[in-house]
Amino acid sequence: MPAEPRAVPETFAFTCRDCGHFWEATFQVMFFTDPTDASGLTTQEYVDEEGRAMRSPLADAVCPKCGGRTVHVLEAGLAERARRAEHEPRPAHKHHLHLPHRHSGPPDGAP
User: Fold this and answer.
1) What is the mean pLDDT of residues 82-90?
2) Which of 44, 60, 99, 109 pairs with 84 at a CA distance of 20 to 30 A?
3) Where is region (Disordered) located (predicted)?
């Protein structure tokens, strides 16, 4: 009889390269270990927020906005930071004129 699986939540951030949509999704990573298997190998399965099991959300990601499959995985939290950055005003940047420094004394190479 296999042991009860352990579940660990894991959040991934995604961006669609087709439409630019950002989103995050949390999956339950289920770890299964068969106690009768002498090798002690563990298998894993991901369960999405709707309870659907999948091999890997990284390989099977589909954009919820446009249905695109050109999806890039990002660091968790990055999607929200990018969304906030799009809507926050940027601080004003003052431009300064950069001129060569003048020095007193004879010009370079003068006797």
Assistant:
1) 71
2) 60
3) 80-111
**Cβ of 57: how many Cβ atoms within 10 Å?**
20
100, part of any domain: no
Please report whether residue 106 resides in a domain: no
DSSP state letters, 30-64:
EEEE-TT-TT--EEEEEE-TTS-EES-TTTS---T
**Residue 68 corresponds to which tokens in the numbers above?**
């695109």
Q: How far is CA 87 from the centre of its chain?
A: 19
- Comparing 25 with 77, the larger pLDDT belongs to 25
C-alpha dist (Å) from residue 90 to 15, 20, 36, 80:
23, 21, 59, 17
pTM over 0.85: no
Res. 61: pLDDT tops 80: yes
* 36 located within any domain: yes
